[in-house]
Amino acid sequence: LEDQLTEEGEIAPEGLRKFIERCLVQPSGVRVIVTSRVQVKIPASGLHAARSIELTDGLEIPDAIGFLRQLDTEGRLGLRTASDDTLGRVQELTRGIPRALEFIAGILSENPTLSVDELVGREDLFGEEVVERLVAAGYHHLEENAQRVMQALSVYDRPVGATEVMHLLHPWLPGIDVQSCLRRLARSYFVYATRGRNEYSLHPLDQRYAYQQIPEEAKADEDLADYSLRDLHRRAADFYRSVRQPESLWKTIDDIAPLLSEFRHDMLAGDYNSAAQILTSLDFDGANCLNIWGYTELLAELRGQLVGKISNPRLSVANLGNLGFAYRLLGRYDQARDMLEQAAFAAYEVGDRNEIGVRLGHLGVIYRVTGQIDRAIDLCRQAADIAKETGQYGMESNWLGHLATAYRSAGKFPVAIDLYEEALNIAKQHGDRQRTTFWLTHLGITYSSMGQYETAIAHLQQAFDLATEIGSKRHQAICLDNIANTHILMGQHEKAVELLNAALLISRQIGVLLSESYHLLRLARAKLGLGDLDHAKLYASQSLALNLPETNHQAATVLGIVLLRLDDPAASSQFAAAVKLCREQLGKSSHLWEVRLSLGTALVGLSILDAKWKDTAERPRLLQPAINEYGLALQ
């Protein structure tokens, strides 16, 4: 794991870090075994579940001797006939580290005249960094062609077959017998062979050393002209480009593995425009498969690698904008706003009106989810107008739908329904099943908010069926969540719990935190309705811990209610925290009716906990601030 750590010992790739953290904090989570030569910094929340085992020593002498003899399968290395004292000395010099023992066998295999005793006498091979020294010695005992094969494997840095290695080396070594070379390296323990798959790979230490031997810049050598890291990575990218599958066959992430490998090698070769074009085919502007399949975190990670590196202005605009969209889906609103503002500015500079509209629309969504409704309505309206003007029907449907959501957030349901219907009709006319799913879902949510529950469930079920057909896990979870919420409003709490558990499983699998926060919030409400206060407290606390603007004020209020029902003294401070969160949201936009409902409920909780509540004559006065908020919400 050390290659994935920052200088402070933290796991650098965000997706990997979140996976490890989730495994540590999740009850009955997955057990993960990690090896690292550098101390890994564990987050405070996961310290109770982490266990560290210091591995300073390798095999004991008897085990090391047995292992060395097993490595000499044909008895030609001298390890089978060497004395126990000699092999014990090998264990002492290598500290019994298995990989170091394998190198001893490998060096003997490559040097048929070298004896075990002579090798043990080579003081330059042993010391504090015995494995690293043996890696270097073993590598330099190889003939040149074998070294080039090792270098090719180090460039791929994953198990590959002989075909991949031949493709990489062909311009410089067209006559090399790669297959024989790989088999020999495997027999000598320099390369790992995977039976049944005909694939070969390197130990991480071998990979690092062989990679370091490749020149960064091509040398003026007639035989190895243009042989450099950049040229080799370009050859690797070319190989993966040649084995791409047609888009019609993309069903799972395994089907696009060649494109992801191509992206990696383009990045390492410095071909950033080419890498950006690959992502364009995979995300929101193309097949959108990474998002649909639930790999938004991966998409954000890949897009983030390209920021500031793309020379093509239009590709740069698309990268910034789509990264902002990915951040929005992940609930990282400040980062989303920053990327989208950069994208909008860059689009103005390029003069691309379509891109200007798209980025303004996405900014409008960010303003809506952070409570600035008037600004959201203005930006979404501009985006819809630009899309209509430029004939971008998909985008017109998109921004009309988001405009409807902004009006719904302001409590203007009839306006919202008209806009949703308009967006839905455009999507259907152009066979856009994904956006059809979106707007059926949002119509269902709106009807549920209006108390028309049967109509709501009918729309949401249609949306769920369509999401299942197109393989959109994220929207399956959203539909299940909102069907469950409608059942809660109908008092059918057990049915709601069943649906929410299914939705939660999906959202945790695909890593969409916003959806997860809604599922937890509604599970808390359903458990509260069933009188299961302990689980209601757990789910509300988990939703609040995610700290997302769309849900934290609701989670804080529900948690306050649960604590009040439990006669927990912390209820008062929890309601006060909920009031503060609601007022922060309303300070950005006074039209958020749902936030006002939460505020009114939190104020009721504070009234009940007031010392004067016992005096029934005081209750109307204590409740008046809450009544005022309910009145404003109804307006």
Question: How would you summarize this macromolecular structure in one to three sentences?
Answer:
This protein has 635 residues and is an all-alpha fold. The chain contains 31 helices and two strands.
How big a fraction of the residues is strand? under 5%
Seen as an oligomer or otherwise, the chain set is single chain
Cα distance spanning the termini: 56 Å
Tell me how many strands there are: 2
Spans of at least 5 consecutive residues with low confidence: none
Tell me the number of helical segments per DSSP (H or I, 4 or more residues long).
Answer: 31
- Give the class from helix and strand content and strand pairing: mainly alpha
- Tell me the overall shape: elongated
Helix content: 55-70%
Average predicted confidence as pLDDT: 88
Strand order of the largest sheet: 1-2
> Measured on Cα atoms, how large is the radius of gyration?
31 Å
Largest sheet: 2 strands, antiparallel
